[in-house]
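Re-running the complex after MR caught last week's input typo. The corrected sequence lines follow. Everything else is unchanged.
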Amino acid sequence: MIKKSTLEYIISHDLADMWNALTPEQKRVVTDNFVIHKFKKNQIIYAESDTPEYLWCLLSGKVKMHKKGIGDRIQILRLYRPVQYFGYRAYFAGEPYVSSASAFEPSTLGSIPMKVVESLIHANNDLAMFFIHELACNLGGSDTKIVNLTQKHIRGRLADALLLLADNYGLEDDDATLKIYMSREDLANLSNMTTSNAIRTLTSFVSEKLIIVDGRRIKLINREALKKISKFG
Amino acid sequence: MIKKSTLEYIISHDLADMWNALTPEQKRVVTDNFVIHKFKKNQIIYAESDTPEYLWCLLSGKVKMHKKGIGDRIQILRLYRPVQYFGYRAYFAGEPYVSSASAFEPSTLGSIPMKVVESLIHANNDLAMFFIHELACNLGGSDTKIVNLTQKHIRGRLADALLLLADNYGLEDDDATLKIYMSREDLANLSNMTTSNAIRTLTSFVSEKLIIVDGRRIKLINREALKKISKFG
DNA sequence: TCGCAATTATGTTTTACAGCACAAATTTAC
DNA sequence: GTAAATTTGTGCTGTAAAACATAATTGCGA
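Corrected-run output:
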């Protein structure tokens, strides 16, 4: 258990947008209902068909949201970094989760009961707008993903994935190496292909001098070319 | 131009959920800013990259939301029936439209400036919740679509599309014939395949006695079998 | 009502990618 | 510190679906 002063520090420093939308009174409601959780690598935070009860807030680590399809084939839908919120969509839609969330690596998360969040929304319009904005951005992203994943060829989809990872988790000090180290399987599940094809295509990119691969470390050395490959399909 | 009494009748009868969330004062704001538009078959309501300015409300007819992909290949993302709202997502996300909307058939629509809608949201929490709910439902739908369109085989995708059309636009009095008559091309764009393959697969379904086709009239005569095909992939 | 364009239909060819098999390398477990 | 399990890497085969070609049919505009 983390002591309250630390908790208040985390919340008030990282929750930015959402936190700033609250009155002092409402901030107290949040801190009183905020619970810290630790998740191990690959541990599941919630699973498909579960009833949504909490708003989750990623404080440290990395989280993936994924969904099982035909023959248990997995599609990674979204990635989260600190400090982002997730787990609320299904609650607002009034349905069980249609996807699962799990930790990519050891992660710290905060949970707030959705009932609390809902009552805060009713008392605070800025908070409502925060969620409207988040949902609207995600929906645009999913619509774009539909077209990218169904219409682009393997090379385009993998290039997309690499650029997304750079955007989402950033690059190391060399301004080229992805900060996230993920398995070939995860990379495949992100870009809708088999693990074999992810490996194969990654190898092609290496021989084309677009990237350098060292185990799970991926260094993007020609991002413009990757963008071109992504654009063509 | 439709006279005001008719307009008020349309609005107060059809806008249901959203309308009921408003105070009398707010209802007046809506009627004062509500403009009726007629669209011809295939006419574009708004296009990709346009700046979103209006909330659109479909009063009669049918509307498709679609997005261009690689080589101008089109994916139909969502379908709208009276009385549903659309066109607001991009505004809330603070970005240009990423998809277009056009009328499937002659349609009547109402528009309300998003600025008006936004100010109403700030004054009315029920309205905010209405949009949160809509966006949350749509996002779940898009996430499911990602998996269905990328992982299911052609037969499964077409079966999905037929069942979706039944759900969305309903059936005629025989409880079997789809109320929407769409081109094979639209059917293909809805289920992510070429027009040739939509035609071919439709023919297979006919010979398997799952459907009866008469021009653009499609009669579902074995919905359970279609559901099975959809489920397997 | 005629003629042109769009839509529907069907056959053939091509290919991108899944599926499978298996080997090598790396990580994990005990 | 060694065995087992997992991950990574490569080659081969099969096939689902796109691409292309070409009629036949329908719809539409002048």
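None of the earlier attempt is carried over here. Residues 153-154, 193-194, 196-197, 215 of chain A lie near DNA strand C (CB under 10 Å from a C1'). Chain A touches chain B through 47 residues (CB under 8 Å).
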